[in-house]
Design a protein that fits this description.
This protein is α/β, with parallel strands linked by helices. It folds into 2 domains: 3-195 and 334-420, 3-Layer(aba) Sandwich (Aminopeptidase), CATH 3.40.630; 197-332, Alpha-Beta Plaits (2-Layer Sandwich). Helix content is 33%, strand content 24%. The chain has 10 helices and 16 strands. Strand 4 and strand 5 form a beta hairpin. Helix 8 packs across helix 10 (402-420). The structure holds zinc ion. Residues 90, 121-122, 155, 184 line the site of zinc ion.
Length: 423
């Protein structure tokens, strides 16, 4: 039997495993059933000769007695020393949302598709990597090195109770792991090299409260924020539109620096539903915005921050009574694996061998757990590669293709042959 035949023979097993994973509603937030899904994988991988560890990320954001942040790491060592190939999948899924025509946790099979929340992002990828590893071990019991499979928490909310926690504990150190494949739904013929960075901040402009009929006795924080937004339009957005990255980010629009203004609020709070009176007449003394600035691998986070600070300081110098406070909310640095990295070249060759096409290189406009493997784990030999169409992630009637899962499992298996069999 060849490895690809062996994977084809596991079609029913692959479908059943994907269904079992989808049927555990690991909704995040708040982080439901993490223990259940880790226990299922723990039992399965133990039965296939893996050593397993269930690891709770105590004290990380969201971790509580009600919603503990559980992770599973499984390792199967070969007969001789060699490299370790690690497949990392997140087990959490986002909320269901509206518009479903199937049970989001029913995992119905229709033709070549399995439907459900998390089918494509990314329980289908997780199941594919497990089938690939199990088939490889059966076909080549004499392999060298090690295979690791992890199912981790909280990717959808930043990964701090998942990969970041494990990386801090040394699970992604270059001494332990040499190659990482994250089976996110990037399509079976694409290799994702990394992602852009993100910088989130809240900016508040200050004013002075006064009666609305005599605004000249106060100072309007909303007008000051108007001046900030005006400078964004005239200075910042045009500057960002001129910056392009060499990274193959998809979609095309995300090859620029971008910035979203998430929210704006100034003055009195919005009236609650149980009050239908008129607002009071006040000059607002505070106005706040939250910004989401995505930056390129060619940009430096200090420059990203400094550009905004310079704009605000400029207003402080030129605009009467302008005052502000800025609070940084979060930073994610960009990550980009080199095209000549061993895992990239290996999966490239595997896609050509299995699918008969040259892969496309992409990078993600947002971020995913690669950031923690890169920054905390210090491991640069990491890609995202897995079945599923990225556009289906987080959508109603999300599905994963069975053929796509089998094909990408074959690519993963081929990559294991290259990396873990003696030359
Ligand atoms: Zn995902």
């Amino acid at each position: 039997m060849t490895l690809t035949d062996r994977i084809d023979a596991k079609r029913d097993d692959l479908i059943a495993l994907t269904q079992a994973l989808i049927r555990i509603p690991t909704l995040n937030p708040p982080g439901r059933h993490y223990h259940d899904i880790c226990a299922l994988l723990d039992a399965r991988l133990k039965a296939h000769g893996f050593e397993t560890e269930m690891i709770r990320a105590f004290g990380t954001p969201g971790d509580s007695a009600t919603y503990p942040r559980w992770n599973l790491v499984a390792r199967r060592s070969g007969k001789r020393p060699g490299d370790c190939v690690h497949f990392n999948s997140h087990h959490d899924v986002v909320e269901v949302g509206h518009g479903w025509t199937r049970d989001p946790f029913g995992a119905a099979v229709e033709g070549d598709k399995i439907y459900g929340r998390g089918a494509c992002d990314m329980k289908g990828g997780l199941a594919s990597s497990i089938i690939a590893a199990e088939a490889f071990i059966e076909e080549f019991p004499e392999f060298q090195g090690a295979i690791e499979i992890s199912a981790t928490a909280d990717e959808e909310s930043g990964g701090y109770g998942g990969v970041a926690y494990l990386a801090e504990k040394g699970y992604f150190s270059p001494q332990r792991v040499q190659h990482v494949i994250i089976p996110e739904p990037l399509n079976k013929d694409r290799i994702c090299l990394g992602h852009r960075g993100g910088w989130w901040a809240e900016i508040e402009t200050k004013g002075e409260i006064a009666h609305g009929c005599m605004p000249f006795l106060g100072d309007c924080a909303v007008r000051h924020m108007g001046a900030v937004l005006d400078r964004f339009e005239t200075d910042l957005y045009p500057a960002m539109a001129n910056r392009f990255t060499e990274m193959p980010v998809v979609p095309e629009g995300a090859r620029n620096s971008t910035m979203n203004i998430n929210s704006i609020h100034g003055g009195q709070a919005e009236q609650t539903a149980d009050y239908d009176g008129l607002p009071a007449h006040c000059v607002p003394d505070s106005c706040r915005i939250v910004i989401d600035r995505r930056f390129l691998v060619e940009e430096n986070v200090d420059d990203v921050r400094g550009e905004i600070v310079a704009l605000l300081e400029g207003l402080k110098a030129s605009r009467d009574r302008f005052d502000y406070e800025m609070r940084e909310l979060n930073v994610v640095l960009p990550s980009m694996t080199d095209r000549t990295a061993p895992v990239v070249e290996t999966v490239h060759a595997a896609i050509e061998a299995i699918l008969g096409v040259a892969p496309t290189y992409v990078a993600s406009p947002g971020s995913y757990d690669q950031k923690h493997i890169d920054r905390i784990g210090k491991l640069r030999n990491c890609i995202a590669y897995g079945p599923g169409e990225l556009e289906l992630a987080h959508k109603p009637d999300e599905w994963i293709g069975i053929t796509d899962m089998l094909d990408s499992a074959k690519v993963m298996g081929h990559a294991l042959e290259t990396l873990l069999l003696p030359a």
